[in-house]
Amino acid sequence: MWAKKHLLYTGATRQPFILSIRDGSVDLSSFKRWLGQDYVFVREFVPFVASVLIKASKKSDDGNDMEVILGGLASLNDEIAWFKSEASKWDVPLSNTVVHKANQNYRRFLENLMLPEVDYAVAITAFWAIEAVYQESFAHCLEDGSKTPSELQDTCQRWGNEGFGEYCRSLQKIANRCLEKASSDVLTKAEVTFLRVLEHEVEFWNMSHGCA
Ligand SMILES: Cc1ncc(CNC=O)c(N)n1
């Protein structure tokens, strides 16, 4: 299981689309496709994060969880504004976007995780994994030796910056604390959910990169 997780995690954070940004060979039409689709995704991600906040307010025994999740929601507010300005810069129309299959599947997955019967430990694990994949992927494009085009630096900074890394570590701590106390049934569900997140992230990158 660990080997599979590791393999998938590397697959999700070192996917060809990300590697093409890092080595400067990225096809700008792929980038634009990603931008339009990710805006749609993020608008669905907000209610998911709100559902995690509700679970935290009911289940969490640690006063700090709410602040961390609320901080995530606040930064999504900035992020939506950023998507709008970035899209106008790149001439990507945001209304009437045809939502790709991979995006639809991912959104359906999030909708299921919003259900009240989904355990807080499972939901927060998914939340952490979703954020961590972006953090690790884009931070990779900012490392020494990367040849990320200057016009994509801002995108990579958005998720690859140190503050976002710190936020992901806070989410990881919350998830770990919940999983330590979880029943084996919940633990299994959290593991499966984690793997599903990685699969959806890979499919999302593939959709951006390919011509599907
Ligand atoms: C497909 C996907 N996964 C994760 C993120 C990062 N979270 C919020 O922005 C994202 N924007 N898009």
From TrEMBL:
InterPro entries: Haem_Oase-like_multi-hlx (IPR016084), Thiaminase-2/PQQC (IPR004305), Thiamine_Salvage_TenA (IPR050967). It catalyses: N-formyl-4-amino-5-aminomethyl-2-methylpyrimidine + H2O = 4-amino-5-aminomethyl-2-methylpyrimidine + formate; 4-amino-5-aminomethyl-2-methylpyrimidine + H2O = 4-amino-5-hydroxymethyl-2-methylpyrimidine + NH4(+). One of its GO terms (molecular function) is thiaminase activity. Pathway: Cofactor biosynthesis; thiamine diphosphate biosynthesis. Keywords: Disulfide bond, Hydrolase, Thiamine biosynthesis. Residues 3-208 form the Thiaminase-2/PQQC domain. One of its GO terms (cellular component) is cytosol. The keyword Kinase does not apply. Pfam families: TENA_THI-4. Transmembrane segments: none annotated. Gene3D superfamilies: Heme oxygenase-like. One of its GO terms (biological process) is thiamine biosynthetic process. It comes from the Eukaryota. Its EC number is 3.5.99.2. CDD domains: TenA_E_At3g16990-like (cd19357). Belongs to the thiaminase-2 family. This is aminopyrimidine aminohydrolase. It comes from Hevea brasiliensis.
